[in-house]
Amino acid sequence: MGDSISAAYGIDEERGWVALLRDHLSGQCSGIQVINASVSGETTAGGRQRLPTLLNQYQPELVVIELGGNDGLRGLSPMAMASNLRAMVEASRQAGAVPVLLGMKIPPNYGQQYTRLFEQQFRQVADSMQVPLMPFFLDGVVAKGQLQQDGIHPTVVAQPQLLRNAMTVLGDPLDRLCRGGQ
User: Fold this and answer.
1) Region label for 181, one of left (φ > 0), alpha (ψ between -120 and 50) or beta (otherwise)
2) How do strand 62-65 and strand 98-102 relate by DSSP bridges?
3) 30 three-state secondary structure
4) CA-to-CA distance for 181 and 105, rounded, in angstroms?
């Protein structure tokens, strides 16, 4: 579940980090199917609404939640975002899936207080619900200037870094799945 970052906005989807994850797993864990349910422009409210249908349709064992960036860019309530993230974590667990969060930071355009409150929500949700969290999914991408001309979306060159970032929290759950849940 993601937004344009995971939907590979502006590049061929097969060169995005989710496709790289699929390729990476195909050699190590052939039984795992990777479904990219990301939608450009998606907010946590949209993800919360779409998730139950996707859980029912695919019955995943692991759900990666990479949402929140559009909430921040639209100046939406950080507390509402946190509530939506909690609901997605809970829905994932109720469906028998392990949830993982890929957090986001936003530019300081909305002021220091909003920026800090926005970023804190990911950590608070992760801590209160005991969910693995990669605090800033674009870590190492923004600093290296590997964003497209719009200044938001990662380039093809940045996709391996996004996969490395995701693997910091996906590694253990994926290892367990590849070993058959042991």
Assistant:
1) left
2) parallel
3) coil
4) 33
The tens digit of pLDDT for each residue in 117-131 reads 999 999 999 999 999
pTM of the model: 0.95
Per annotation, catalytic residue among 4, 6, 38, 92:
4
DSSP per position, 20-63: HHHHHHHHH-TT--------TT--HHHHHHHHHHHHHHH--SEE
Among residues 3, 71, 92, 153, which one is catalytic?
153
Mean pLDDT of 70-92: 97
pLDDT for res 29: 85
Cα separation, 127 vs 125, in Å, equals: 6
**Is 153 noted as a catalytic residue in this protein?**
yes
Residue 113, both tokens: 């207080």
Neighbours of 116 (CB within 10 A): 11
Residue 44 has a pLDDT of 98
Count of residues in the chain: 182
Q: Is 12 a catalytic residue?
A: no
The catalytic position among 24, 26, 150, 172 is: 150
Angle between helices 78-94 and 44-58 (to 10 degrees): 10
8 vs 154: CA distance, rounded Å: 8
